[in-house]
Amino acid sequence: xxxxxxxxxxxxxxxxxxxxxxxxxxxxxxxxxxxxxxxxxxxxxxxxxxxxxxxxxxxxxxxxxxxxxxxxxxxxxxxxxxxxxxxxxxxxxxxxxxxxxxxxxxxxxxxxxxxxxxxxxxxxxxxxxxxxxxxxxxxxxxxxxxxxxxxxxxxxxxxxxxxxxxxxxxxxxxxxxxxxxxxxxxxxxxxxxxxxxxxxxxxxxxxxxxxxxxxxxxxxxxxxxxxxxxxxxxxxxxxxxxxxxxxxxxxxxxxxxxxxxxxxxxxxxxxxxxxxxxxxxxxxxxxxxxxxxxxxxxxxxxxxxxxxxxxxxxxxxxxxxxxxxxxxxxxxxxxxxxxxxxxxxxxxxxxxxxxxxxxxxxxxxxxxxxxxxxxxxxxxxxxxxxxxxxxxxxxxxxxxxxxxxxxxxxxxxxxxxxxxxxxxxxxxxxxxxxxxxxxxxxxxxxxxxxxxxxxxxxxxxxxxxxxxxxxxxxxxxxxxxxxxxxxxxxxxxxxxxxxxxxxxxxxxxxxxxxxxxxxxxxxxxxxxxxxxxxxxxxxxxxxxxxxxxxxxxxxxxxxxxxxxxxxxxxxxxxxxxxxxxxxxxxxxxxxxxxxxxxxxxxxxxxxxxxxxxxxxxxxxxxxxxxxxx
Length: 629
Description:
Blueprint: E1 7-10, E2 41-44, H1 49-56, E3 70-76, E4 88-96, E5 101-106, E6 116-119, E7 122-126, E8 129-134, E9 137-138, H2 140-149, E10 151-153, E11 158-165, E12 175-180, E13 192-195, E14 198-200, E15 204-208, H3 226-236, E16 243-248, E17 251-252, E18 258-262, E19 264-265, E20 275-276, E21 289-293, H4 301-309, H5 318-322, E22 338-339, E23 353-358, E24 361-366, H6 375-381, E25 392-395, E26 417-420, H7 422-429, E27 439-448, H8 455-468, H9 485-488, E28 494-496, E29 526-528, E30 535-537, E31 541-548, E32 558-565, E33 574-579, E34 585-591, E35 598-607, E36 618-626
Parallel strand pairs: 10-36, 15-27, 16-21, 16-27, 27-28, 30-36
Antiparallel strand pairs: 1-2, 3-4, 3-17, 4-8, 4-9, 5-6, 5-11, 7-8, 11-12, 13-14, 14-15, 18-21, 19-20, 22-25, 23-24, 25-26, 29-31, 31-34, 32-33, 32-35, 35-36
């Protein structure tokens, strides 16, 4: 059974009037026009772990690929930058079957509702089956439209490009395409090449395996050939990792975004059998899992934490325990709809949402703090004793909210409830027994098929592998309040991504991954005079200057910056505006106050005399305003 689609909708900003100013002396917007928030941005998490577990147990039949199923492509340029103005190509875009044309809807079409049609450029045979090859190309204006519509940043180094619509698929039911994108000022990483097929940095390994992924025709998780990747890895690197995170550098498309495959389980009482298949992957007993991450999702806090946590859960059988009729995405191996804490392992609600009693009735509320793993998950990990796990309320109507993973705060629940405790679980499975981790060692392996990664590509993957481990214990939270794996466990388990070669000492990383500045060209149509800091303190006075570089008009008169926290999280919107000089320059001066403490998106707008409502010229995240030390 193919995994169902779970879309995590992340609102970038609440509606803003654009006329209320938070700083004295700033230029006020003309009467009428408003600074409109960017479009909602989607981060897609479709977990394939249940499918790989069903395949391992021999209960999931392999499904032949459907005609028109997108399989993979090569992004060109390999890493986009926000100021890039050239062509964007999805090179050698392979789809299954005899498909002369295929439809595509851009994330930011030129006209609302536009659907493009790609035309096939070639056909070929893979394992005797016909596939079609397409090579769609866009001009630089397409990237500009996307960057004006969606955010990106250190917490989201990719952008949604659009949706492939095979056959008669309607928008919303196709395959989302994400492209790697990063600020231009990525820090340089030291790289050591061990052979023509192997190189590494402080936090990633790059293996070249000729033809890797090129025989893939469907959703079979074995297509990523983890045993071959692991064997090649262990030739050069220590057998000291709990998990190998395999990342195909070509962009592979499947019914899942990522999955976690358990190789060794030493923990009883969590609903998983004891097992040890580590030898089949070249490990002498340390390796516990391998993971595959598509779409660059290994860099997302939600996806990375979700898949890592699948080593321990969520495998409690709530149907057998309570008679609950499950619903939601891959319900068997994900959390039920319950209250009151948020969960990273849900089959429905995302970590930014939880259920609570408000005015005597259950409803959806915004997770009021940085999200944490649910107490039941922390019990399965071994980091929370049974006596500290609170009773949960389970909702009989598991499929409510219309399948929306992030319903609006205030949405009421429907149906009856029942309760359960961890001692119900212990009565069925026995008490949790086994090792309790204090760290989780993960090797990130980026696999290419026809070349080693360039220095710029190594810099990209290294920076974000380093950042996801939260080495300085800052939490590296997203604007939506999703922190690192470490903080989500209340720092009980430390995710470590250091690469340890057999023949040399690990490379020492000096990367500033907490709050690095953003390149001055990270917003389309404006160039700032210096990189924009991403960390400030309340009470701090800030001056930002730059020039307008947009060429769609010659009469820009005002620049507006808006710092906005995610809806429902701490922090007030701060807006500041400045007049554009005849030479196209501007200077903004403003001050952060205590009410602005929080994690923001920074949107930049341009106005002209008589301008209508405007969408931003770019939105970048996260910008942190902290309490004064």
